[in-house]
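hey so u asked for the seq, here:
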Amino acid sequence: MAPSLLAADFGRLREQVALVEEGGADLLHLDVMDGHFVPNISYGPGLIEHLRPHTKLFFDTHLMIEEPKRYAEVFANAGSDLITFHAEVTESPEDVIEHIHSLGVSAGISINPTTPVSAIERVLPDLELVLVMSIWPGFGGQAFMPEVLAKVEKLRGMLRPDQRLEIDGGINQNTIAQAVAAGVDTLVAGSAVFGKADPVEAMSDLRALAEASLTSEGRTPS
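ran it, structure tokens below
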């Protein structure tokens, strides 16, 4: 489970992060938006740097920005454990991956709902994570796009067991089971966690639904 910080109450940020950490979150998903690649601006490395001393959660930083190679270092220095960039912003993803790894952090790549798997196939062996967007990036609260699950199924058969397959967008109690059944192992949830009165209970409910889906597929929760 990877609660998305974007949906948290920024007036109580430390409290909310501590809450989901105690509640068993595996990662903290950090959505960085530049107002260019996506029509929204969120936060930058300063917030990540100030949050880093207050939690032991793995920082899963998702750069929805036009120049990931240029800015990767500041996010690595701020405390990111993994940096994911979008395939749509570069013709040389190999260079971006190599640069991210040179900073001592893991690398991920993300594809938008209409971007085919073929756009990233050649770099799959070099990645620690692949992120499939199940909404258009830039704003939370959009409806889940089930048509992306065909890409998830294809990617699951192409990735090694040690590589994570993540999905982001519209994950809630109604959609999480089908995402897990398609093959994802890392689930980003924003409003379905932080938008609830009890984020810990909400996360527990989502995890139970995900594990039930795994069991029905004959897979073992990890």
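The first helix runs from residue 13 to 22. Strands lie at 2-3, 27-33, 58-64, 82-86, 106-111, 129-133, 164-168, 186-189.
lmk if thats what u needed
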